[in-house]
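Bug #77: duplicate submission created two jobs. Keeping one. Sequence:
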Amino acid sequence: MWRKNWKSAENLPCLDSNCLQHQNRVTAEKNAEKLDAQLMSLDSCTEETNVKLHGNTKDLESLVNEKDGEGHKETNSSFLHAVINMSGMLIGLGQLSTPYALENGGWASAFLLVGIGVACGYSSHLLGKCLHENSKSRDYKDIGQHAFGSKGRIVATAFIYMEIFMALVSYTISLHDNLATVFLGTKINLGWNHLQTSQILTAIAILVALPSLWLRDLSSISFLSTGGILMSLVIFATVACTAVFGGVKANHSIPALQLSNIPAISGLYIFSFAGHIVFPNIYTAMKDPSKFTKVSIASFSTVTLLYTALAFMGAKLFGPQVDSQITLSMPRNLIVTKIALWATVLTPMTKYALEFAPFAIQLEHNLPHSMKSRTKMLIRGTVGSILLILILILALSVPYFEYVLSLTGSLVSVGICIIFPCAFYTKIFWSQIKRPLLILNMILIMSGALLGTTGTISSSKLLVQKFQRARTS
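Kept job's structure:
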């Protein structure tokens, strides 16, 4: 009985002052632990929400750009997968113009093509180093902010959007040119306008592509991205088939060097290697990011080899008559030519939703959170449709593919692909960069600035002259 009473006494509250102090301290500690646990849970939820939001943003932004990217949420990308993704993003619209650039620059300009490929591959390696240095950097704009603060982010963002817009104009011009060849001889007369048949067909194609701008489902946009990559590979394969089985003799001689054309064609070469805005997404998606440099070497080596082979193949096949888009020079009676033309027509139509994605993201972020999702969708789709119609009007007003593409490469892509990565790396690693590497980066920055300046001036002059001749005629 004593034992029972003693046990029950243990459960009674302690009336001693020391005991009360001890009890209060224990209670306070328990409450503090509960509060810490709640705060940790709240931080975890907040961090998880940020990761999810950032992941969705990254998924969409990695689908744009400039090129044929895919979004990745998880770090499950193998070395081979990363090489395929990077190569797929590089092989795009630029491949159509490499034979034209080589013919006009001379066979010696192939050294410039390879040199730009090496420089862009090296700058891709530098982006990987910048990402490794700061684990919080997830995309190209983050690297700019890490290097130069908010000003670096603003400049990087401006150049990214400029490249996207100008690339879309180039894609629409390519769509117009290839539609005109596919439907050669077709006449469409609406009676109430003075548009040419090719312009009407391009407008119809844009109207067909408009609904894709209303897509918000990531899987649908990824499907479009995959289609764009496949179309680019089909174009290269059909040109190769024309060279082997098309009955066209590769007996044209290529001039050694035409120095006066180098500034203009340098922009075409640079644009061919544009894709750096989505390389950070490839890095963050890799299982082993330490292999990113090897991925860059493998991808740029493969693409540079393909570009060089395609350039010599097209220039030897068609000589001075080679068009700024190789598909327009292929014999029209061949089945592979029809396949190539339709692939070139379909490629731009897979790009519009991908390229518009970052604009849509920024637009949605600026809209009030209280706004209904249906209203946001209407605003996003309406703004995208207006932008696409504006791009259509601009493309039909200035339908000069090679000059617009060259201007894009010289004015915008050279900064994104060469100048900015070297500047970012130099600023971030300033305290530990070795002298030879510093000299190399400064040489690349100055060379890129020289090519960009001369190329912008040359392509702008050619574009204005072409426009004036068209107006007078």
